[in-house]
Specification:
Blueprint: H1 14-27, E1 33-35, H2 36-43, H3 47-63, E2 70-75, E3 78-83, H4 89-98, H5 101-110, H6 117-123, H7 128-143, E4 147-149, E5 155-157, H8 159-173, H9 183-200, H10 206-224, H11 242-256, H12 262-273, H13 289-302, H14 311-328, H15 342-347, H16 349-362, H17 369-373, H18 375-389, E6 399-404, H19 409-419, E7 427-430, E8 439-442, E9 454-457, H20 464-480
Parallel strand pairs: 6-7, 6-8, 8-9
Antiparallel strand pairs: 1-3, 2-3, 4-5
Helix pairs in contact: 1-3, 1-4, 5-7, 6-7, 8-10, 9-10, 9-11, 10-12, 11-12, 13-14, 14-18, 16-18
Keywords: Transcription, Transcription regulation
InterPro entries: BglG_antiterminators (IPR050661), Mga_HTH (IPR007737)
Domain Mga helix-turn-helix: 87-170
């Protein structure tokens, strides 16, 4: 868990990372409370540092006026978290990022407001040496993306890489509620988006609208600063539609009252096509190298997909995931963290294991450097793609549950219908108590059953605690089942 946050050191201090880790650790626990001894172990810190982190977090909650959304309390040797539905850990993380030295430097460089190192040393109550060190750290990170920070503190190099990096960073940190540019630019860009929706007869989600808002805004700022896309973007599949380009060009000139180059429109086309609302046309086109590699590795582990009903959907979704990576190279920032949730780990271990295995194998080949460069971004997308597309029966044999309550047939059917909400697990329901039954669900004590059959005695109707216990028993029984198609040796991880 601790390693998930290490990549954020460009923008977050070790103290800030520990505070976020404290919240995340408690969020993942049952009833959102964890003993101090468990927190020390999971966070890898001493009790002294843990208690300091707790106190600093409490102060930050008050400082940022989050006390109505988030509360943290230490009762004896247990730390408990209380939060309402409007709070996300990202809220606090983004507040930390915005106030960080690294982000302030990047933001001022992008907006042509960088002054000199002395000013930043005074502003952040730190030494000039630390400011120089932070600038050099940022330079090294940017150079890996084909971006240079010039001696005059200007972003130069690959223009598409510059816009992509700033777009990903600003979209992540600011979002829709805290737009950092001028009101005029926001109004113009939103008008552009609404016109495109109308002309294309398409409705974009709030997420897609926010992504497009920031991308166009950043492109406009770069163009106004006379930083243009000089080379035509390389097109990887997509909608080769002249009418689409014409609509964009016409709308752009209407809203921003100026002509736009063909390269700028091409870049805009590539970005818009990467949004969920715009399907890619794949007929008579060869699959890209990343999708081919994924399908090859997947079939090595789980068998041939030719006879499956979901192969086409899996390929189409992979192409959609890889499309922006192939066109923009790096979609991930230092702020991205891998999906780590107890629910996912307990119910989809095979998916997590395959994705880790795939990313690890790709990292060993220079040919697939884009996968390594976007490892967190791609892994997160792969996980939910596989969960969404593959049926629960694909990976493992069913957990067999026998339902037998003294209230009879109709009550048994009531329980059955509620168990169907566990559709993310391969559960097979029976009313016959045979030797291969994994769990007997009933309201009476019984003995003398097969030793592998777990008996769960429920209240009628079941309590919240009964359902929680059933969920844990299902997860345990599932964990004992072998993988259905091949499998990945655990020693690879």
């Amino acid at each position: 868990m601790k390693g998930e946050w290490r990549g954020m050191n460009s923008f977050l201090s070790k103290t800030d990372v520990r505070k976020l880790l404290l919240i995340h650790t408690i969020e993942e626990s049952f009833q959102q409370k964890v003993s101090i001894s468990d927190l020390k172990e999971k966070m890898g810190v001493s009790e002294f540092i843990l208690l300091n982190t707790y106190e600093e977090l409490k102060q930050d909650i008050l400082k940022y006026q989050l006390d109505e959304q988030l509360q943290i309390q230490k009762l004896n040797q247990v730390v408990q978290l209380k939060k309402n539905s409007s709070f996300s850990t990202d809220t606090l993380k983004n507040l930390y990022v915005k106030e960080s030295l690294g982000f302030q430097i990047i933001q001022d460089v992008f907006e042509d407001m960088f002054t000199n190192s002395n000013d930043y040393a005074d502003l952040f109550y730190t030494s000039r040496t630390k400011v120089y060190s932070k600038v050099n750290q940022l330079k090294a990170k940017l150079e890996k993306l084909g971006i240079k920070l010039s001696s005059r503190f200007k972003l130069v190099g690959d223009e598409i890489a510059i816009r992509t990096y700033i777009n990903n960073l600003y979209t992540s940190v600011y979002g829709m509620d805290d737009y950092p540019f001028s009101t005029t630019l926001k109004e113009q860009t939103m008008r552009f988006i609404k016109l495109i929706e109308t002309k294309m007869d398409i409705y974009m989600t709030q997420t897609s609208t926010t992504k497009l808002l920031y991308f166009i805004s950043i492109c406009r700022i770069r163009i106004e600063n006379e930083q243009f896309v000089k080379n035509a973007p390389a097109t990887i599949t997509g909608l080769e539609s002249d009418s689409f380009e014409d609509i964009l060009k016409e709308t752009y000139q209407e809203v921003f009252n100026e002509k736009v180059s063909h390269n700028e429109i091409d870049l805009l086309v590539l970005f818009i096509e990467s949004l969920d609302e715009f399907p890619l046309e794949l007929e008579n086109q060869e699959l890209d190298s990343l999708t081919n590699f994924f399908i090859t590795e997947f079939q090595k582990q789980f068998g041939n997909l030719d006879e499956t009903f979901f192969k086409e959907e899996l390929i189409n979704e992979l192409v959609k995931i890889h499309y922006p990576v192939l066109n923009f190279n790096c979609l991930q920032t230092e702020l991205d963290v891998p999906v780590r949730a107890r629910f996912i780990e307990e119910n989809y271990p095979e998916v997590l294991e395959f994705c880790r295995h795939f990313i690890q194998k790709a990292s060993k080949s220079k040919k697939f450097y884009l996968i390594n460069q976007n490892d967190v971004y791609l892994s997160n997308h792969y996980i939910f793609l596989l969960i969404n597309v593959l049926p629960p029966s694909f990976f493992s044999y069913p957990v067999k549950v026998c339902i037998d309550f003294s209230l009879g047939k109709n009550y048994n059917q009531f329980i059955y219908r509620n168990i169907q909400t566990f559709d993310f697990i391969n559960i097979e329901i029976s009313h016959q108590l045979t030797e291969d039954i994994d769990i007997l669900l009933c309201d009476y004590p019984i003995s003398g059953l097969h030793q592998d059959t777990k008996v769960i005695v429920w209240s009628a109707p079941p309590t919240a605690g009964d359902w929680a216990n059933f969920g844990r028993c299902i997860a345990t029984a599932k964990g004992k089942k072998p993988l259905k198609k091949g499998g990945i040796p655990l020693e690879l991880f």
